[in-house]
Amino acid sequence: MDANSFAARMEAANKAIDDFVRRTGPVAIGNLAVEHFKDNFRKGGFVDRSLEKWQPAKRQGVLGGAAGQYGPLLSSKPTLYESITLRPGIARVTITTPVKYAPIHNEGGTVSVTPKMRKFAWYKYYSNGGGQSKDTADPAEAAAWKRLALTKKKKLQIPQRKFIGDSEVLTKKIKDKITAEITKILKF
What we know:
Elements: H1 3-43, E1 45-47, E2 51-53, H2 58-62, H3 65-69, H4 79-83, E3 85-89, E4 92-96, H5 102-107, E5 109-112, H6 115-127, H7 140-150, E6 155-158, H8 168-186
Antiparallel strand pairs: 1-2, 3-4, 5-6
């Protein structure tokens, strides 16, 4: 290989690396991160160095039927799970979720029991078959909503169930992806 062809190959490699860093890399790394964070839902915990299992949801031990079969942060409508998306930029990517209640689940904390929340709980109680008959007990899911509607508590503690954030396992996956892509580009 002469100097001119070597210079041309180096120029092409430089352009390919710049394209990876600025355009295709953020999308590839973002997809890797989104899949990692969604996998946390499937595993029922957050993977940092190892799997940190989430505290079981109260409905898992109380409710029978369909609602009790889903793990923490999961239900028949996987809104939070499906909301994790990537926003690529030039040489960067942001992983986000637009769901309003995502931060309280990810970080834990206290929520106030408002009249609007109690009204919603009554709606869910009746829509789940509560209050249908005085002779039979309410379905388990309806009974759980009734307890929320009638609670005397002014605040409820939401346990932390981290599903998105810094992770050593993800960082290693990202480094491996970058190394593989740069190595592929530099192979002449």
